[in-house]
Amino acid sequence: MLLCGIPVLFLLWYFVIKNNDYAITFETKALPSEIVYLIDSPVFDKMQINNSEIKSNFSQVIQDAQLGAEFYDLNWNIEPKNDSITKVKLSVTNQNNSLKDRFLLLIGQNDFQKKMRDEIVYFKDALTTYLELYKVKIEGKTSSPKNTCACITTDSKVDQKAFEMMKTIDILSNYILNNDLETLGRPRILINSWDKKAENINFSFCFPIAEMKTYPKDLLIEIKEIPSEKALKASFHGNYMFSHNAWLHLINYAEKHNIEVKTENILEVFQNNPQLGGDESQWEAEIYLPLAE
Question: With the CA atoms of 159, 40, 117 and 119 taken in that order, what torsion angle do they form, in degrees rounded to the nearest 10?
Fold first, then answer.
């Protein structure tokens, strides 16, 4: 009787209770937040993502996906295994043919398992390549620079801020040149707000200028006083479109060392001019994450 009950219980669990059709697990050296943002981008070969939502604390992403003629619910769970390794588990459920998929998987005749695994191998390879595009080094506690700046403020996605900067750099440059203003430092951006789950930011792209009693008027340009703040500093090397990853590394460092920080007024100071080209791996920026005081 017991021997008969075990298969029945297994089938009940497999077809009724089990909350996914199939699961894939892998490990990587990336931070959970880096993985979550790349999942949300997304980077796959043949799989199309129709909807993607970051759930909470860079630990879960829910997606509505299509692979071939089938539609799937993807549930990504991302958690640190230790200080250097992150574990990623993807649970996959067919939206319309879950029982059929489970049965064919059970008898070894469902090729969706291989197709989905190929997509995850493609994603993991893309993640490895992505992590090679930039380097972040935590410098420790310091104070961010104080400046008077001519700025243009805009909204964008975190990974689109470099494109927004390129769209407005000539406007700022012409404002400086046409009004014969003295510049006092490298271009920079100030992150006014950051919705981490939606990946939306409001930021000001700024040129530091000498203080004046009055400033030339321009409908697009605002004069901002950027104060010095106590901050965690990181050095970033790579294309500036990836510099937001330094924010993630600074937040991770702060959490590990019980340092209270805030995500408003993150400051990036750029040491290179992308318009001049050159080796992107040598582009450098100083990143300041303000301390919460």
Answer: -50
Taken in order 232, 238, 241, 242, is the CA torsion positive or negative? Answer: negative
Query: Cα separation of 221 and 48, whole Å?
Result: 40
69 — phi, psi (to 5°)?
A: -95, 0
Second CATH level (architecture) for the domain 14-132: 2-Layer Sandwich (3.30)
Phi, psi at 258, each rounded to 5°: 55, 45
* This model's pTM is above 0.70: yes
* pLDDT at residue 3, as a whole number: 45
Q: How far apart are CA 61 and CA 74, in angstroms?
A: 8
- Distance separating alpha carbons of residues 72 and 95, to the nearest angstrom: 5
**pLDDT tens per residue across span 151-206:** 999 999 999 999 999 999 999 999 999 999 999 999 999 999 999 999 999 999 99
Cα four-point dihedral sign 68, 76, 128, 162: positive
DSSP state of 57: T
What's the mean pLDDT when you consider all of the chain? 88
CATH 3.40.50.150, domain 136-290, yes or no: no
Question: What string of DSSP letters covers 123-158?
Answer: HHHHHHHHHTTEEEEEEEEEEPPPEEEEEEEEEEEG
Whether 12 has a pLDDT exceeding 60, the answer reads no
Report yes or no: 199 and 40 within 8 Å, Cβ to Cβ.
yes
pLDDT of residue 110: 64
> Which helix or strand (DSSP H or E) is residue 129 part of?
helix 112-131
Strand partners, 284: 237
The full set of domain ranges for the chain reads: 14-132, 136-290
Residue 7 has pLDDT above 60, yes or no: no
Give the Cα separation of 56 and 33 in Å (integer): 11
pLDDT score of 17: 42
